[in-house]
């Protein structure tokens, strides 16, 4: 695929059952999203896998979903990801997934962020349902699909099976695909750099997210794909780190940025790492990366429960996760507040 076609993703693929195009990005009503939808280009930077918010009875709190998305957009993130691990996708029905993505798109459009792209988690165990989720993501206003490899029948999934899975999904998806390598979520399946680099040749596979934390792998993929960076558009392929605690490392080896959960709490701080690096402020970026890494460890070690607790403590919203995830005790609320304190203080100083 040519660098220019990577850098400017096409309109919706012609094989999509929803195929329509629009010459401009503009706000749309819920009923017309799929008629007016054009794929918004990705750019190097920070992407935030947003949380799903719930009312006390665990129904979706769509008002907070929308307000949170706009807060992140105003902070300067490059894009938003719905239906990821942070978004409790495994706790949502298909209908609820569509509601979250549609609400996010409409809130961004209403706030003037028409061009901010949305990546939607679309992983499932069967090829058929994964394609269905990609179609639903597009119909709901999503621009890209983030896809995990299938893992339930792990002993039967050989390298060829995984490659065929991603190629089949990419062939049929109405939106471009990013490969999601997250061994902890898929029974330890860890895609190697050779496999991801080979899949990157598919015209509808335009990036990857490496939550494995293997920066050597990231460096090999970035080099093989001539990945986009904050200072060089390259081929347009998005080689993304999966955690903010190695943002600087990702950038140094030629990566495109990160998709990071701590961005829900401190989006400005995470984006500032990219800004400092892109402008050559190496002393500043090294100090900030340490703050972000410590904050990210608070998020990683406490999970969704701790992240939502910190949002509640410091920003007045967050709520709880869906059961069977636990509720934070008073002692845990204090612990989480202390863990996030440094990065929140920096965030509020920006």
Automatic annotation (TrEMBL):
The record's Pfam families line, in alphabetical order, gives:
DHDPS
Q: Which residues form the active site?
A: 180 (proton donor/acceptor), 209 (schiff-base intermediate with substrate)
The residues listed in the UniProt record as binding pyruvate, with positions renumbered to this chain, are 259
Q: Where is the composition biased (Low complexity)?
A: 19-30
Q: Which GO molecular function annotation, any one, does this entry have? A: 4-hydroxy-tetrahydrodipicolinate synthase activity
Q: Where is this region: Disordered?
A: 1-30
Would you say which domain of life the source belongs to? Eukaryota
Q: Which InterPro entries match?
A: Aldolase_TIM (IPR013785), DapA-like (IPR002220)
UniProtKB keywords: Lyase
PANTHER family listed in its UniProt record: 4-HYDROXY-2-OXOGLUTARATE ALDOLASE, MITOCHONDRIAL-RELATED (PTHR12128:SF52), DIHYDRODIPICOLINATE SYNTHASE (PTHR12128)
Which family does the record claim for this protein?
Belongs to the DapA family.
Protein name, entry field = Uncharacterized protein
């Amino acid at each position: 695929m040519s660098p220019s076609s990577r850098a400017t993703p096409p309109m919706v693929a012609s094989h999509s059952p929803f195929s329509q195009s629009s010459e401009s990005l503009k706000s749309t009503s819920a009923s017309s999203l799929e008629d007016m939808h054009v794929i918004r280009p990705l750019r190097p930077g920070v992407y935030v896998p947003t949380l799903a918010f719930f009312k006390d009875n665990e129904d979706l709190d769509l008002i907070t979903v929308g307000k949170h998305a706009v807060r992140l957009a105003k902070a300067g993130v490059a894009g938003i990801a719905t239906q990821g691990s942070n978004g409790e996708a495994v706790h949502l029905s298909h209908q609820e997934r569509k509601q979250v993505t549609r609400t996010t798109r409409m809130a961004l459009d209403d706030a003037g962020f028409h061009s901010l792209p949305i990546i939607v988690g679309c992983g499932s165990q069967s090829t058929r349902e994964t394609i269905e989720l990609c179609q639903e993501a597009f119909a709901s206003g999503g621009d890209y699909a983030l896809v995990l490899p299938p893992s339930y029948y792990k002993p039967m999934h050989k390298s060829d099976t995984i490659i065929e899975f991603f190629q089949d999904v990419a062939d049929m998806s109405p939106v471009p695909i990013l490969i999601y390598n997250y061994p902890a979520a898929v029974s330890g399946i860890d895609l190697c750099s050779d496999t991801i680099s080979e899949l990157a040749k598919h015209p509808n596979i335009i990036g990857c997210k490496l939550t494995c934390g293997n920066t050597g792998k990231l460096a090999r993929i970035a080099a093989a794909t001539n990945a986009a960076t904050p200072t060089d558009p390259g081929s347009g392929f998005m080689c993304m780190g999966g955690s903010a605690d190695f943002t600087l490392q990702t950038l140094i080896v030629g990566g495109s940025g990160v998709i990071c959960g701590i961005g829900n709490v401190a989006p400005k701080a995470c984006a500032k790492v990219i800004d400092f690096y892109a402008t050559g402020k190496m002393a500043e970026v090294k100090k900030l990366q340490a703050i972000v890494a410590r904050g990210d460890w608070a998020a990683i070690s406490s999970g969704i429960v701790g992240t939502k607790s910190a949002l509640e403590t410091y920003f007045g919203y967050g709520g709880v996760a869906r059961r069977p995830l636990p509720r934070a005790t008073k002692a845990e609320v204090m612990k989480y507040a202390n863990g996030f304190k440094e990065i929140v203080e920096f965030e509020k100083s920006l």
